């Protein structure tokens, strides 16, 4: 019923956008129903069948046979019905349902213009759905992309024409980003909005640090070593607690690596963020003492019921215990919660 060339044009566009043939057929069916609704105000009595292999599109409209037509969109006279289907003259009567075949050519040039607009919009919708389905299953993964633009405090990163957003609160504040910079970050969340998927990435999230260790330390990826807690002041300092599931392996040494190779790679990625690696302990006193490193407390008073601890230090160790702007003691508190 319709020129095969039109379907081939749409098929070529769909292939460029990686749209499956089954979805293309659905789009074309929706397209013609949309054109009918735009032309007549209603398409509820119409149906469309697309055969991509034959290059055919058939459109049908169900109408009730009446003596006098009040609404030509859903009604037809017996004479008109017989005129369209002469072979069915003896089988048709007033009150019957008549299926009329609609020739797409009646829409004229409007069909081409409307088709292009509708098809482009539906392809955008499908692309957005593909992107959403892809990235929603990748939350927690590390990705690498190039900075596309910086606007309103957000850093926008492109990966294979997909735009990801790093808000100000997910950035390492000491870092400065420029267009074209290559950035590594963790996918934090994916939400579907009216403008498409909003894919938020982060360099300040604790999970980013966890994934970096997982990449650099095979024992963590293999489950031999566990990171049980992380506390960060992104770009400045972090403390992590590690635990070995194999007595033969030192978790701190494994994370540091030969001559510090593993930890140095992570520190460089985080703009020289200092990282304290703490060996886990079942004894609260030992764990808290290790967490307060580099300072060594003289005495600890721990109230397990109130989850509270008082640490006493020598005067010369007090500054190191507190840290710059209270950073050391705050991180120690968070990582041992």
From TrEMBL:
PROSITE patterns: S1
Keyword Oxidoreductase: no
SMART domains: S1
One MF annotation (Gene Ontology) recorded for this entry: DNA-binding transcription factor activity
InterPro entries, A to Z: KH_dom-like_a/b, KH_NusA_2nd, KH_sf_prok-type, NA-bd_OB-fold, NusA_N_sf, S1_domain, TF_NusA, TF_NusA_bacterial
CDD domains from the UniProt entry: KH-II_NusA_rpt1, S1_NusA
One of the protein's GO biological processes: DNA-templated transcription termination
A GO term from the CC aspect: cytosol
PANTHER family attached to this UniProt entry: TRANSCRIPTION TERMINATION FACTOR NUSA, TRANSCRIPTION TERMINATION_ANTITERMINATION PROTEIN NUSA
NCBIfam families: NusA
Protein name, as recorded: S1 motif domain-containing protein
């Amino acid at each position: 019923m319709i020129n095969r060339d039109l379907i081939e044009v749409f098929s070529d566009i769909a292939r460029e956008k990686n749209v499956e043939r089954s979805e293309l057929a659905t789009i074309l069916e929706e397209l013609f129903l949309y054109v009918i609704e735009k032309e007549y105000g209603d398409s509820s009595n119409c149906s469309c069948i697309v055969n991509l292999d034959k290059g055919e599109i058939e459109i049908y409209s169900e109408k009730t046979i009446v003596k006098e037509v009040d609404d030509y969109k859903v009604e037809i006279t017996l004479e008109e019905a017989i005129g369209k289907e002469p072979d069915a003259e003896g089988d048709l009567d007033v009150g019957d349902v008549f299926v009329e075949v609609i020739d797409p050519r009646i829409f004229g040039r409007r069909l081409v213009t409307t088709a292009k607009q509708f098809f482009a919009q539906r392809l955008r919708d499908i692309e957005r759905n593909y992107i959403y389905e892809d990235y929603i299953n990748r939350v927690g993964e590390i990705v690498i992309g190039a900075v596309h633009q910086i606007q309103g405090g957000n850093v926008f990163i492109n990966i294979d024409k997909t735009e990801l957003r790093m808000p100000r609160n997910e950035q390492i504040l000491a870092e400065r980003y420029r267009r074209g910079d290559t950035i590594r970050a963790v996918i934090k969340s994916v939400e579907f909005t009216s403008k498409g998927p909003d894919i938020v990435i982060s360099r300040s999230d604790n999970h980013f640090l966890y994934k970096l260790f997982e990449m650099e330390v095979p024992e963590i990826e293999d489950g031999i070593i566990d990171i049980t807690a992380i506390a960060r002041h992104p770009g400045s300092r972090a403390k992590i607690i590690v635990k070995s599931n194999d007595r033969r392996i030192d978790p701190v040494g494994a994370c540091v690596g030969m001559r510090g190779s593993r930890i140095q790679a992570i520190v460089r990625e985080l703009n020289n963020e200092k990282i304290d690696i703490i060996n886990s302990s079942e004894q609260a006193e030992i764990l808290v003492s290790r967490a307060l490193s580099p300072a060594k407390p003289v005495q600890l008073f721990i109230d397990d019921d109130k989850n509270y601890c008082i640490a006493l230090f020598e005067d010369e160790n007090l500054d190191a215990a507190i840290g710059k702007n209270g950073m050391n003691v705050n991180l120690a508190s968070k990582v041992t919660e």
